[in-house]
Amino acid sequence: MRIAVTGSIATDHLMTFPGRFADQLVADQLHTVSLSFLVDQLEVRRGGVAANIAFGMGQLGTAPVLVGAVGADFAEYRAWLDRHGVDTQSVHVSETRHTARFVCTTDADHNQIGSFYAGAMSEARFIELKAVSDRVGGIDLVSIGADDPEAMLRHTEDCRTRGVPFAADFSQQIARMDGAEIRSLLEGATYLFSNEYEKGLIETKTGLSDAEILEKVGHRVTTLGARGVRIEAVGEPVIEVGVPEEERKAEPTGVGDAFRAGFLSGLVWGVSKERAAQVGCMLATLVIETVGTQEYTLERGHFLERFAKAYGEEAAAEVRAHLS
């Protein structure tokens, strides 16, 4: 089974200001703010939902095809993903724009000032999935993640027209989409991913009930934070999977992407949806224990030991057969 992962590819530039923003603001001059902060720390992290998911799948050895748009500054990031088992040959490189970038400064009180530059991401709408499929000899599932909205709509329509199964995963783009757009993106999806809050927002914006949405998609996969994940489908028993015990909690950014990477890898292996969700929860646990969305290391023995502790020896034996 070959999976193409579409969505954003970005870098995060995170800075720390040792003072307080509030101390630099003059109450009667807020209409003409002109400030510069001398920061004492800079971290550049690789990110973007598609890249994060693809990285996790690469760690699990399932050879994902990354589909998205970047700038000419992507060379080092590309090399990193290539080294970690991701096929990056279908990534579109813009001739005029930089790779999407989030720049954020955090002060001593944990207040933040940030900006997001979409950049080359806006060119993702020009990517043709047929060309991607032809290059790799066929695609069995397309994961359509948060991206340029026009790209998300085009990829979804391409999948429906060509009869290719797809997973709808709106993530951060739900906030800017209206009900009609969301309806269009979920109609006929094999999988609909969301967290619990996004689930409610989808229902509110579309005006559809949970039952009505289930009629329109194959499976609804809802992540529940510390309570794990729930998988629902019409006429099937509800599957609920808990999360493994954490060794520590460092940062939650990228946890949802890691779950998706594990779940999709389970589909590639052909295991049950319950087992796939368990793999997703285990990978998500590794990410929450690490600062950065792609800074964790998957060590096979350690992964399987913790997996067995959480889900049993029989489950671990099944995963062991696939985990390279």
Describe the protein's topology.
Elements: E1 3-6, E2 10-16, E3 41-47, H1 49-59, E4 65-67, E5 69-70, H2 75-83, E6 92-93, E7 100-106, E8 112-117, H3 129-136, E9 141-144, H4 149-162, E10 166-168, H5 179-186, E11 191-195, H6 196-206, H7 210-216, E12 219-223, E13 229-232, E14 239-241, H8 255-269, H9 273-288, H10 300-311, H11 313-320
Parallel strand pairs: 1-4, 1-9, 2-7, 5-6, 9-10, 10-11, 11-12
Antiparallel strand pairs: 2-3, 7-8, 12-13, 13-14
Helix pairs in contact: 1-8, 4-5, 5-6, 8-9, 9-10, 10-11
Question: Which band does the percent of strand residues land in?
Answer: 15-25%
The backbone outline, from C-alpha atoms, is: globular
What is the number of E strands? Answer: 14
- State mean pLDDT (0 to 100 scale): 94
* Count of alpha/pi helices: 11
Widest sheet: strand ordering? 4-1-9-10-11-12-13-14
Largest sheet: 8 strands, mixed
Structural class: alpha/beta
Which regions have little confidence, pLDDT < 50, spanning 5+ residues?
none
Q: What sequence of helices (H) and strands (E) makes up the elements? A: EEEHEEHEEEHEHEHEHHEEEHHHH
Describe the structure.
It is built from eleven helices and 14 strands. The strands form three sheets. It has an eight-stranded mixed beta sheet with strand order 4-1-9-10-11-12-13-14. The model has no long low-confidence stretch (mean pLDDT 94). It has 324 residues and is α/β, with parallel strands linked by helices. The chain is 37% helix and 19% strand.
Task: Give the structure's gist in a few sentences.
By secondary structure, this protein is α/β, with parallel strands linked by helices.
